[in-house]
């Protein structure tokens, strides 16, 4: 009942939008996709399933919008991004409710996501004002030599359901700062926060066809965006398998790409670790977003000297974690995204047990309605097992043991992924040495909370390439041009 009232209230405010935003208009279609609430399996609303013709139109209008946008000043774009930031903060509670409805996460985490997402807009509103151009001293031939940075052109973003708002502002903020129009295809599981975000951008004065939100099943929409030569840049966040497919699909139009893909983060807990810090790192690193995050701790590597102490303390604490409806503030964890995800997680546990792991806690589905999993702890995990090789993407902690620093580094680096890695220990010198040797794009020492608009977020190897946020973020949307005059 509570959910239905929330949906009604959001609809009355015009915040639960069941249309796509294409070529400057809110558009509908007869073909619709139903969007369900993962916490109770009830219908939230519908979105249009757009066809290829509409996406072709979207690209055309993004192209003409681009011609106008590139003429605007840095200050104009900075001001819009700042206003958009204010709008997100002003409407934090309603946006958070939508995220909880569609993604199943707790309201506490949804509010945190709005702050995180808005942070990209304020960051890029400052970055928008910067001048990156520079002069190269003359040589024997040329008197004047300069390097300038220009907007790459029409851009596209394909985004996932786990952070349905932040994974968009991180891309759209940078694109607008750089002077690029953008067509966004949000996940078909979490379209409503994206649509509200777009409305708030328009309310902030963004000219109407700079951003477009195209909704629907991914294949047909993806096909147009990937193959269109007018789309000069694609920024993707999602699974490694899909990322590779999109990269292949973009090869004929030879776009600039950013790929923020899966991870398999190790957390190394050295024998000199503060146990409280180690537990906090496991809880934050694993249970943020119910484990459905690419920077989530996937393998907890514990020194055999403190394994038993840590293990007992961890079970004690995780056992008290409350799981349930995200609107109920006492629940620490909400549901996972959908039935397929829950079934996949149960299979991961079953398979790990078959390969020799032991369930120390949890392991079961919680209710029959909604997709809830008990926070689970597995011991006896070895790095050769599937659970240690693949991204878990759910509330399952797997504990591995190591005997020496050397062994810890070898195990940690023995993965095809390279997004985030973490170290816990009190010896600063050793922490720094270990950080140098870990092959990941981002390393957190004694804290796992890396995400921030000011950092260059991204990975190496199968975790993709390109950096989002930080000083690097805007360059993903800029092209370098060199001009020399004799
Ligand atoms: P998940 O399996 O967890 O949903 P994906 O990587 O498949 O993760 O999805 C991330 C985003 O990629 C979503 O917006 C999804 O719709 C989109 N996507 C998936 N397949 C394709 C495709 N063939 N073309 C374009 N986008 C796709």
Model description:
This protein is of the alpha/beta class and 486 residues long. The protein is 39% helix and 20% strand. It is built from 15 helices and 20 strands. The protein has helices at residues 2-12, 52-69, 74-90, 92-103, 107-127, 166-178, 191-203, 218-227, 240-249, 275-287, 307-318, 339-354, 386-389, 405-413, 428-437, and strands spanning 20-22, 25-27, 32-36, 43-48, 134-135, 144-151, 154-158, 182-185, 211-213, 231-237, 256-260, 265-269, 297-303, 358-361, 376-379, 396-402, 420-424, 442-445, 464-465, 478-485. The strands form 5 sheets. It has a 7-stranded mixed beta sheet, sandwiched between helices. A hairpin with a 2-residue loop joins strand 1 and strand 2. The longest helix has 21 residues, at 107-127. The relative contact order is 0.14. The mean pLDDT is 97. It binds adenosine-5'-diphosphate (ADP). Adenosine-5'-diphosphate binds at residues 158-160, 185, 187-188, 218-219, 222, 238-239, 242, 245-246.
Short précis:
It is built from 15 helices and 20 strands. It has 486 residues and is of the alpha/beta class.
> Number of helical segments?
15
Radius of gyration: 23 Å
Instruction: Count all strands and give the number.
Output: 20
Strand order of the largest sheet: 14-15-16-13-12-17-18
Low-confidence stretches: none
Estimated helix fraction: 25-40%
Which structural class best describes the helix and strand composition?
alpha/beta
Bulk shape = globular
* Range of strand content: 15-25%
The separation of the N and C termini measures: 74 Å
Biggest sheet descriptor: 7 strands, mixed
